[in-house]
Amino acid sequence: MSLLEVRGLTKIFGGLTAVKDVSFDVKKGEIVSLIGPNGAGKTTLFSMVTGLEKPTYGKVTFNNTDITGWEAYKVANLGLVTTFQKTKVFSSLTVEEAVLVGTHSKHKTTTLDIILRNKKFYSELERSKNKVTEILEYTKLSDKKDFMCAELSYGEQRVLEIAVAMAAEPRLLLLDEPVAGLNHTESKELMNMINDLRHSGVTILLIEHDMDLVMKISDRIVALNFGENICFGTPQEVTSNVRVIEAYLGSGEDVGGSGCY
Amino acid sequence: MDKKNIKIKRSSLTFLGWTTVLCIIPFVFSSDYSRHLCINALIYIMLAQGLNICLGYCGQMSLGQAGFFAIGGYVFAILTTKFGFFWWGSTIIAVIMTALVGFLLAVIGMRARGSAFIVISILFARVVRLVALNWTDMTNGQAGILSIPRMAFFGNQLTSKLSIYYYVLIFVVIIQFLMERIIDSKIGRAFVAVKQADSLAASLGISPYHYSIAAFTIGAAVSAFAGCFHASFAQMVSPEMADFNNVMLYIIMMVVVGGRGTIWGPVVGAFLFTFLPEYLRFADMLRMPIFGLILIFLVLFVPDGFIPAFTKLTRKKK
Amino acid sequence: MFLQLLLNGIVLGSGYALISIGHTIIFGLMRVSNFAHGEFYMLGAYFAFTFLDLLGLPFALAFFLTIVCGIILGYLLNRLVFKYVRDDMTVNGLVTIGMSIFFTNLAQYIWGAQPKNLMSPFKSNTIFLGRVSVTPARLFIILASAVSLFAFFCIIKYTKLGKAFRATFQQRDAARLVGIDSERIYSVSTILGTVMACIAGALLGLAYSLEPTMGAKAISVSWAVVVAGGPGNFIGAITIGLLMGIIEALGGGYISSAYKDAFPFIILILVLIFKPQGIFSKGGSRMNG
Fold it and tell me: Which has the higher per-residue pLDDT, C123 or C152?
């Protein structure tokens, strides 16, 4: 069952076509990676899915709901959460507070509950706080929970971003270059975490450059070049596809085309 | 579980502590004139909190609070004097009307961007002043509206400064109480999230647009409420209520110096900037430039205001 | 009457255009919410007053010295204040509010609160162009504004400095990587912005009287122009500035003189309802700091 369906997505900025007629889908429980050279339109594609940008043409369907052109917060409330290419954290909040903010969309209290401080308020607060503790343990940030987000190292901040996103209990998690700037060990750890996330039921769509990691972790891969989808399939299919090799992997070998969208 | 109880107890104690201080103040400053100032300070607490919610918590700078103060006051004044409407009814209508104006302004302005919004808020206050000056049929122009009825407690007109102080204090405490509850909740956290990283907040399901509008509208409503009390206490309203230098500037100072993003900072700021000008009377000419300099230096060096600086200091000592 | 009002509007609008273009550079490039910009306008007028009336210098010299003062003022502002508060709009907004108060009161202290007039070097005879009467001073204002704006554009477009400026404007980090000295660009921008406002003050001072509080009106209109035209958008600043002046004059004449200060606000609201990004901007970036 497709959790996310992207059909004919196109984005034109003035005279520049950043993304052209891209279609693919992401099935529930899988990890799909989006690859392509710099400037291929990956982040723009992401923004159209998450609501940061409105598509010029095309359609995005999430969990059978048409979310084309929806605002970012509305999309997030449906369960589609994203992290950003450039690290974004709540600089003046502690780690614990930041993750607590993440629980916002799942926190079910009304204004009246808040003013009355009734039982519902406290039970929801406890539920959220437990979730936060759970996530902090899972991401190994528990001992840093009272640190300011800005005080964490770059690598820890990248993990924090995922922790905050997880607090929103996403159905689909979009990760834009999650291991960018991390060293080898940190990358491996983060990728393992992402893999584990899949096992706990989160579907993942990620942008990544490190082909090793992409090959190991992905169920399917979408390859973009100059804004167009040049191949969509399993890692094997993609890496043996002529157009992908030409565009991205840069090998001159003569291999036959294979099953690709 | 224990930690939660300690936290609750500590914040309740702080609340009680401050409330007690506020109750005692009119006995520390016990001259009739000082008590007059104290009541003004209470009214300014409301105004400052209106700005605090916008600026301190939601990060939305607004320079139009004085405009809402004036609208609230004038609507109240017109309803009570020209139409003989009763006190609380006039207040409620004034607050609702002003909140609606604030809401509309926010809806139009926030769609643009945060900075456009500040501009709209300043121009708004100027227009309010202009209307108050020129719509003489309703507002009496420069002279303002006089003979506005004083407050009454269950039918008894309040005449002594002390009784008025405690009457207004009840509502200030209610506002503080509500603020505390809202800030320490999902809504308060959302405000702060929008302030610090609005695109990140959006990716987590928090709509910066809606929350900014909410913060602004609340600010407008609280300012209008203050306007009603002012109208009733001073027993007059005038176009000066919307004036930047006379009103808005003080509100800014109170929030910035007292501590934005805190609940009790504006309380300190309000009392400070109600009493300070009195003590600086001798240097009347220099008062404004001094304020200007204070603002500059404080924003640069103690950016969050005194209460947060104090809290940081005491936290470090531990 | 229409043409007369139109002309007055153009005179006023030229002033607004000059002020706003300075404001939009500072805001667009350095993201400084400059609430003291109206005071630069006011100071420009008072500088001119000092040189022209108090010191009795010939007009050209006085004007030139005013510009020099503007340059010094701009340089000091950048070096002492703006340098430290760029980008954080809440902080720099509050700081410039403080500066605004400080300057207004400083002016009051130095020159007194009574309205003053610049000793115009132009004879006060009215010239008649058809049914429209205009004083030489007002014609000069329009002319001088046009020249200043033209000079401004030439600097931006043709000098090496101007090119570096434009590069920094579009892509700050990239420009720095290419070796452009941003500090210098910021300094120049602040100076340009301040000088434009000072010139506006000196010019409009020939037609209107001077008061220490004259900055308040100027800053309100200037902000409306910057936002409606799009921050950093020069064409927008000039066009909307002129428009504001014209509408204020026409509105004041035909609709109501008392409410003429409200027109910039109304225009701004209308613009924001229909095109939230500002009339001329090419769309999409949020102004939130």
Answer: C152
